[in-house]
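A quick aside before the break. I want you to see a complete sequence-to-structure record at least once, exactly as it would be stored in a machine-readable document. Don't worry about memorizing anything.
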Amino acid sequence: MLDCKEFNYYKAVTDSDFYFLHFNSPFMQKIFNEVIENALPVFTPYKNTENLFSRIFRLISTNYDGTNDPFLSNLTYSLVCDLFATQEHELTNHSSEFHSAPNYIKIAIKYMDQNYYKKITINDIALQCSMSPSQLARDFKKYTGLSLHNYLLKIRIKEAESLLVKDKTIPLEKIAVSSGFTDASHLYKKIKEATGMSPGQFRKKYY
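That is the input. The structure line, written in tokens, reads:
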């Protein structure tokens, strides 16, 4: 979710398709501000979210003029509601204390979410938060229920799983680099530990 009044920059480490949906409504700025205040403006969509996007873009791609159309309005309203539901789901994956977490915990999460594919260390994360590594590590565990290492690993595994089922022609070495693992062997080991399946088995089951 981006503020169209501000300059925005987004980088993808793999081939990606970009779609922009502009919400032109007086109440959207208020919603946007609330999202930014309470969590990060990046959402991992549910299947229903993807379906809503597809239906909206199918209408737009047919040169359909949806101005003041109640059907299109209903779809976009449903999409906004679904994004909020997704946000709530993501937040509840953390400990119940997450909402009261200090701002530096959210900075650490945002930094890892945006830089998981790089070779970042706990010292790098602590520097972003202006904290000592040991203090940040203790507080992060307290508020999220995960160590910094395990949170970063969780993001990387999730990204690798997504790439595995996105395109079966992407080689493991490229997926490893794109999701922050050292090499294909490292990726293989962590996927196996997390899912009980090899990357090949995971891809075959879910592709």
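Two observations worth writing down. The chain has a mean pLDDT of 78. The first helix runs from residue 28 to 38. We'll return to this after the break.
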